[in-house]
Amino acid sequence: MSLLNILPREKPPLSFRLLQTTPEPGTRARCGLLELPGASVNTPVFMPVGTRATVKAMTAEELETLGYRLILGNTYHLEMRPSAALIAGLGGLPAFSSWHGAMLTDSGGFQVFSLKTLRRISDNGVQFQSHIDGSLHEFTSETVMKIQRDLAADIAMAWDECAPHPSTKEYVEAAMARTHKWLDRCIAEYDAAGRRATNGMPQALFGIVQGGTFKDLRLASSAYLASRDLPGYAVGGLAVGETQDERCMSIDWSLQNLPQDKPKYLMGVGTPVDILEAIDRGIDMFDCVLPTRNARNGQIITSTGPINIRNAAFQSSPSPVDPSCDCAVCKRYTRAYVHHLFRMNEMLGPRLTTYHNLAFYANLLAGARQSITHGSFLQYKADFLNHYCTEPLGDSVHE
Amino acid sequence: MSLLNILPREKPPLSFRLLQTTPEPGTRARCGLLELPGASVNTPVFMPVGTRATVKAMTAEELETLGYRLILGNTYHLEMRPSAALIAGLGGLPAFSSWHGAMLTDSGGFQVFSLKTLRRISDNGVQFQSHIDGSLHEFTSETVMKIQRDLAADIAMAWDECAPHPSTKEYVEAAMARTHKWLDRCIAEYDAAGRRATNGMPQALFGIVQGGTFKDLRLASSAYLASRDLPGYAVGGLAVGETQDERCMSIDWSLQNLPQDKPKYLMGVGTPVDILEAIDRGIDMFDCVLPTRNARNGQIITSTGPINIRNAAFQSSPSPVDPSCDCAVCKRYTRAYVHHLFRMNEMLGPRLTTYHNLAFYANLLAGARQSITHGSFLQYKADFLNHYCTEPLGDSVHE
Question: Which domain holds residue A375?
Answer without folding.
Answer: 295-397
